[in-house]
Amino acid sequence: MKKLFPFNNPLGIVLTSAALILTISPEARRGTRKALVKGMGAALALGDQVKGLTSGVRHQMTALLSEAKHEKETMNFQQIPDTMREMKEKSVSKTQEAMTQMKYSVGSLFNDIGEPEDTDAEQPFNVMADPSIQSKLNEIENQLH
Fold it and tell me: By residue range, what is the domain housing residue 70?
């Protein structure tokens, strides 16, 4: 017995006194048994909670992975460069078309301007009253709407 619980170690003294008390006192045995039963019940309840949490996380991860897998299968990465190239070509052609229409509409805007009939230096000349400018502005407005 000396080798199992050495008396020069404080832990040995505590274990020896606990063994003596449990051996002699039936009250101590009943109390120890109740404490052990409650401790085991708490440990089992904690284990059940951890098991429930891990199964919930596992279910969520499975759903997330299946959703990501479905998304990956439905995406076709090879079509993306072709689609981008088509969009670029369409935008370039639309821009060139708009520039051509703008050059056609605005390019000859100032070609038809004549000299003012009354060149009186004291009175300003109203450029907006010129019929050729009015017709060009109306033409541009019609094209934009």
Answer: 10-74
